[in-house]
Write a structure and sequence with these properties.
Chain A is an alpha/beta fold. Chain A has helices at residues 13-24, 57-71, 73-77, 95-110, 120-126, 149-162, 206-213, 276-289, 335-352; strands at 2-9, 30-33, 49-50, 88-92, 116-118, 137-141, 145-146, 166-168, 173-179, 182-188, 191-200, 220-231, 239-242, 247-251, 256-260, 297-308, 315-318, 325-329. In chain A, strand 10 and strand 11 (191-200) form a beta hairpin. Chain A is globular. Chain C has 15 helices and 31 strands. In chain C, the strands form 8 sheets. In chain C, strands 1, 2, 3, 4, 5, 6 and 19 form a 7-stranded mixed β-sheet that branches. In chain C, strands 20-23-24-27-26-25-28 form a 7-stranded antiparallel β-sheet. In chain C, helix 1 packs parallel to helix 2 (65-78). Classes of the chains: A alpha/beta, B mainly beta, C alpha/beta. The A-C interface holds A 37-40, 44, 150-151, 154, 158, 161, 169, 228, 230, 254, 274, 279-280, 283-284, 286-287, 293-302 and C 524, 537-541, 543-544, 547-548, 550, 553-555, 557, 581, 584, 586-588, 591-595, 597-598, 600-601. Strand 16 of chain A pairs antiparallel with strand 31 of chain C.
Chain lengths: 380, 107, 603
């Protein structure tokens, strides 16, 4: 019977980052189980933004640490992930939102983040290709940026494999073997694997995996659509995003514009079909703000999911009820950008007893048991 | 036309320290430590001037020996482009035949 | 007006290899030295030399010219020698020497006791129709542009002259990413070293002997050239005229010593064609007919930078001996020995003849001339040395960790290798300035040849390459087996696997060009090799492959590439196409403009 110290469920960016960091810090007796192919879940469908401008302080810290790790991603893994620190332009379309931004910027600066507040006039001067009509205020974080999520996912997986981690693709976990509130192993389509620790990094399916171990994971998945245009010359270095305007957009290294928005009417569940209504609403909104899009063409439209937690912040930690059951889930649409820091922190917690770079205790599941918690507001 | 070498197996050429000079009124990017001649060639300008007989003149030796590369710099003619460093804002023109006299009026 | 007036015991004119070594030798012995140099920085022509120099380890061998320039400049700096750059010594007047500081546009008057003239040489021009057309350059000018300023003045080059400079420039143009369409040489043999000629021949550059340039074609700029064969009397044979398409013509037809200042100093000039034409007469310590004027380097005789440096040292010591009274004869003797070794071989013949006319005798011969016939034991990984001329050079011998290589007692000797001692480390391949050493090993199914490689980009293991023989003829395809990266001095060794038997033939390779690449995905220009390499890396799913390579992510939506890529994947994995997981085809099926979406909205 095959056995591992640690089995990770999910071969997306979170699972692969945890696997890579475990191996990097010396724990190589690790396997990753992916029910489909690498990057088949939310990672391979996400927008690829890397943002540090959050409203919750702990998210800022996690994201800042992630940026440090993205900066040396190529050095660490040998993979060029098209990482570009082109900045993030946050656009506020209401006085309320503008006030919130100002408050956030104060907190972000306390954390040592470089952010500036821009008036609509300044935005227009800097980026003449943006229509700033109705814009109330914007903030710009020059060290924010974006990268290619597929390549980052593959980068971590290949680097982890090189360090000795086993990766099982097309291998679905069917059950988790728990005896006397302790993890014994997992049952998969490729047979039974004995292990001491199971890490739930199943993204959209994290709730189901939780149930297999008898641990309630309070996450819900919602469809999130994105489309991409044909390529234009590179002139748009940053990610533009608005929470009250409900959109985000960036230009990839290959020149294509990738963009999306949230839909408050979305029903819970995994749904990968796409709607034309989305294209209509996006077209209407985006061409107004970014007039150069009018003659651009959409070439591909797809859907992934946000695995939402009640406060839109990730749930990371190890269960106090089932020994050996850990989780890094509920990233609420921001798993890609937080993955390096989260993988590092969780790996350090498991190997050294506590994270060394950034605290994650506050992200444990217990915070959601009370009635009041701070909800992250900077989410599309 | 940009003729700068991007990748070289032996040498490293720094991609920084640019200034702007004007050739026949056209702004061109020059590296701050190069000569006028290399900036012109790098930007695709091969004709540095014309002889008295109207023959186009390029540059030949690059080390100040042949005097084939005379240009007008900030109004001053007969400047050897291969031996003169660029300066931000410098105005360079093709020299046609002999240069026009220039002088500074006494104060 | 503020008159700058400077005094120096020794005034060195020219900051090239001869001037700097002269300045160093004198300053090391306490002489107060001033160097006046025209260039933007000292180093002379060394700063644009990217090839490795011949010679021996104790005297700059196997270092690249610009690296030597740096060593000399550092020495000059450490000795506190005063250097005026961008300053031209315009004249030796009867009251003082005058330098023209171009940067500050002022003159400087200089008083001196001794002068070392190291003014070098200028390039010879050549007469042919339309020879003043922009785009006709001296070889040195192309080197300056490429290697000092990083500017490649054209794409397709014709080189006139197959001496060492023509050959070296051709190779450097290829390194900088240009093409050399031909080298024409009017005589019936290559004037430069065979190893330099071999470097360009194996890249497929034709060296056309008994050929010359007849005309530069173009208005305003070179667009082509007419070349033709010549008869025994160097007359153009009309019916052999033909046009070649080039945009740059590079003249490498020799140098002439810059004697202007020597003439002003009234030293005796003599006309000796073997040494470059008019040159100052001088004795073996480089002293001219004026007792306080010395010469060194190309001004003294058109030769190489290595001999220029030896001459510079001799002159510097001789001057220091005069000024300080110290006995420096041992030091001078050392560098005279260096010079003797540099001039002892067949390539020194012309110089020996010329120097004899001035009454200076240089010994010749006394080195091994026979070639090694043996190709070594089949199956063993070993070095093969293809250096068959007596060149004063022995870094291979010096670097070999097992003493397997020897040049037979004199550095002009032909190197031989003891195959029993050779351990196959390839150090000699990386060190050889002539890139004339290769690694060879035969296996049952295939052979591997290790080739010195100084081009960008460096191929990767597993990459397909096109094999070339010594004459640049393409003789098949090979696969990169191993790459020994030489970070320090950049002569890498690329081991290429090839069909058994080709190991005696293949001496170069090239990467397939864009046109030769087999495209799978037209939108993103993904090649078959890209797909195969990704599969070899471990991608086993079509969707992974798609996400990694961007196959099918372009505007065609995967119509052209989908089945092709799936086919390669299926074949590589030994599966059927149906077994490859089905792909997801997303809307819109053709690119859909935002404007059309918006217009549909209007009722």
């Amino acid at each position: 019977m095959k056995s591992y110290k640690i089995c990770i469920i999910g071969g997306g960016i979170i699972g692969s980052s945890i696997a890579y960091h475990l191996a990097k810090f010396g724990e190589k007796n690790v396997a990753v189980f992916e029910k489909s192919y690498i990057s088949s879940g939310s990672t391979g469908r996400c927008g690829g933004g890397i943002r540090q401008q959050w409203s919750a302080r702990m998210n800022v810290r996690l994201a800042m640490r992630s940026v440090k790790l993205f900066e040396r991603f190529k050095e660490d893994t040998g993979f060029d992930i098209e990482y570009k620190q082109g900045g993030y332009l946050l656009m506020a379309y209401s006085e309320d939102e503008a006030a919130r931004f100002e408050k956030n910027v104060k907190m972000q600066k306390e954390e040592g983040l470089e952010v500036e507040i821009l008036s609509p006039k300044m935005v227009k001067e800097r980026y003449p290709y943006i229509n700033t009509e109705r814009l109330v205020l914007a903030t710009f974080g020059p060290t924010d940026g974006h990268a290619n999520p597929h390549l980052a996912n593959f980068g971590y997986i290949f680097a982890a494999k090189k360090l000795g981690v086993d990766v099982y693709t097309h291998t679905e976990v069917e059950d988790i073997d728990v005896v006397n509130k302790k993890i014994m192993g997992i049952n998969t389509t490729a047979g039974y694997f004995k292990c001491d620790v199971v890490i739930n990094a199943a993204g959209g399916w994290s709730g189901e995996i939780g149930k297999m171990a008898g641990v309630d994971i309070p996450t819900t998945s919602y469809r999130h659509q994105i489309f991409v245009t044909e390529a234009l010359e590179s002139f748009f270095p940053f990610m533009a995003i608005s929470f009250d305007g409900n959109f985000y957009m960036r230009q990839t290294k290959h020149g294509q514009f990738i963009m999306g928005m949230g839909d408050p009417d979305e029903k819970p569940g995994i749904n990968r079909d796409v709607s034309f209504r989305f294209e209509r609403e996006m077209a209407e909104k985006m061409v107004k703000i970014f007039p150069f899009l009018e003659n651009t063409r959409i070439i591909r439209h797809w859907a992934g999911c946000y695995n939402m937690s009640p406060d839109a912040q990730p749930i990371i930690g190890c269960s106090k009820d089932v020994e050996g059951f850990c989780y890094a889930v509920g990233f609420s649409g921001h798993g890609f950008m937080l993955a390096p820091a989260v993988g590092e922190a969780l790996a350090q917690k498991l190997i050294f007893g506590r994270p060394k770079e950034v605290e994650i205790d506050f992200l444990d599941i217990d915070r959601l048991k009370g009635k009041s918690f701070e909800v992250e507001g900077n989410v599309v | 036309m940009e003729r700068r070498i991007k990748n070289h197996p032996i040498l490293d050429f720094e991609e920084k320290g640019y200034v702007t000079i004007y050739f026949e009124g056209i702004p061109i990017k020059a590296k701050e430590n190069e000569t006028i001649a290399s900036a012109l060639i790098a930007n695709g300008f091969d004709i540095f001037g014309f002889t008295e007989k109207g023959r186009p003149r390029g540059f030949f030796c690059a080390i100040g020996k042949c005097s084939s590369c005379l240009v007008v710099v900030d109004g001053v003619p007969n400047v050897r482009a291969c031996m003169t460093k660029v300066r931000d804002g410098m105005k360079v023109e093709r020299q046609v035949g002999r240069g026009k006299p220039t002088w500074t009026e006494p104060e | 007006m503020d008159r700058a007036r400077v005094k120096a015991q020794l005034l060195v004119v020219g900051g090239g290899p001869a001037g700097l070594t002269g300045a160093i030798a004198a300053a090391e012995n306490g002489v107060d030295v001033l160097v006046v140099d025209e260039g933007l920085e000292p180093g002379g022509q060394l700063v644009k030399q990217t090839h490795k120099f011949f010679g021996h380890q104790g005297f700059y061998a196997s270092k690249r010219g610009f690296e030597i320039a740096k060593i000399l400049k550092d020495k000059v700096k450490n000795l506190g020698i005063k250097v005026m750059s961008q300053t031209t010594l315009v004249g030796f007047y009867d009251d003082c020497a005058v330098a023209y500081d171009r940067e500050n546009n002022r003159t400087i008057e200089i008083d001196y006791d001794y002068v070392l003239l190291a003014t070098g040489a200028s390039e010879r021009f050549l007469i042919f129709k339309n020879n003043m057309l922009p785009g006709v350059y001296g070889a040195g000018a192309v080197q300056t542009l490429m290697n000092q300023y990083g500017v490649l003045p054209g794409e397709d080059f014709l080189i006139v002259g197959a001496g060492n400079i023509g050959l070296i420039v051709a190779y450097q143009i290829m390194q900088a990413g240009g093409n050399v369409r031909a080298i024409v040489e009017i005589s019936d043999k290559v004037g430069g070293y065979e190893v330099h000629a071999n470097k360009v021949k194996r890249m497929g550059i034709p060296i056309l002997l008994r050929h010359t340039i007849v005309e530069a074609i173009g208005k305003g700029r070179v667009k082509g050239a007419v070349i033709a064969r010549v008869d025994e009397n160097y007359r153009i044979i009309e019916e052999t005229k033909r046009e070649i398409v080039v945009d740059t013509i590079c003249l490498a037809v020799g140098l002439q010593p810059s004697v202007e200042l020597a003439n002003q100093l009234k030293v005796e000039l003599v006309y000796i064609p073997e040494l470059g034409g008019y040159i100052p007469r001088r004795d073996e310590n480089m002293r001219t007919s004026a007792s306080n004027v010395f010469v060194a380097g190309d001004l003294a005789a058109i030769e190489e930078a290595t001999s220029a440096m030896a001459e510079g040292y001799i002159a510097g010591y001789a001057i220091a001996q005069d000024i300080t009274g110290k006995d420096l004869s041992k030091e001078m003797e050392r560098y005279r020995e260096e010079l003797n070794d540099l001039r002892r071989g067949p390539f020194g013949e012309k110089i020996r003849k010329g120097l004899r006319k001035m009454g200076i005798d240089v010994p010749s011969g006394g080195y091994r001339e026979e070639n090694q016939k043996d190709f070594g034991p089949v199956g063993k990984l070993r070095a093969v040395i293809e250096c068959y001329q007596n060149i004063p050079c022995n870094p291979c011998e010096a670097v070999c960790p097992t003493n397997a290589i020897d040049t037979g007692g004199n550095i002009n000797g032909i190197p031989h290798i003891n195959y029993e001692k050779c351990v196959g480390c390839a150090m000699c391949v990386m060190k050889c300035p002539g890139l004339a050493i290769f690694m060879v090993q035969e296996f049952d199914e295939y052979s591997v040849v290790g080739i010195p490689y100084e081009f960008e980009p460096l191929p990767e293991k597993g990459q397909k390459v096109i094999l070339m023989d010594r004459g640049g003829k393409e003789v098949g395809e090979g696969v990169v087996h191993r790459v020994m990266v030489n970070k320090k001095d950049k002569t890498h060794v690329v081991f290429v696997a090839m069909e058994r038997g080709l190991e005696r033939t293949v001496r170069h390779f090239r990467l397939p060009t864009r046109e030769e690449e087999k495209i799978v995905c037209r939108c993103e220009e993904v090649t078959r090799e890209d797909v195969e390499k990704a599969i070899d890396m471990g991608f086993t799913d079509f969707e992974e492959l798609r996400r990694y390579l961007r196959i099918g992510m372009g505007p065609c939506g995967g119509r052209t590439c989908r089945l092709l890529a799936a086919g390669i994947l299926a074949r590589k994995l030994g599966k059927s196409i149906e077994e490859i997981s089905p792909m997801t085809l997303r809307p819109p099926s053709i690119p859909l403009p935002f404007s059309a979406i918006l217009r549909g909205d209007e009722k």
